[in-house]
Amino acid sequence: MSRKRRKRKKNSKGLSIVIFTVIVVCLCVGVRTASLKKQNQELALKQESLEKQMKSEEKRTKELEELEKYMKTKKYIEEVAKERLGLVYPDEILIEPENQ
Known about the structure:
The protein has 100 residues and is an all-alpha fold. The chain contains two helices and no strands. The protein has helices spanning 2-71, 74-83. The N and C termini lie far apart (122 Å). The mean pLDDT is 89.
């Protein structure tokens, strides 16, 4: 009988070590899973923010392209010459209001 008890004690010690190891592994996996979920949420928010920023920059690029096209037109050149340089066509008469 004493041999059976010794074997059971050895078996129960081995079994308890295995159970303890499994529990520790499960806890480690659970903690890591929670950490990864949190990181995933943070990255999703960052991705969303970057996508909004990208759309904004694409819109800005289109606006700049339109401005570039406008700046190449004759109308823009005339506008700048009149406003900044005060130039007029030879047959054009400027009427300026009196200072009040």
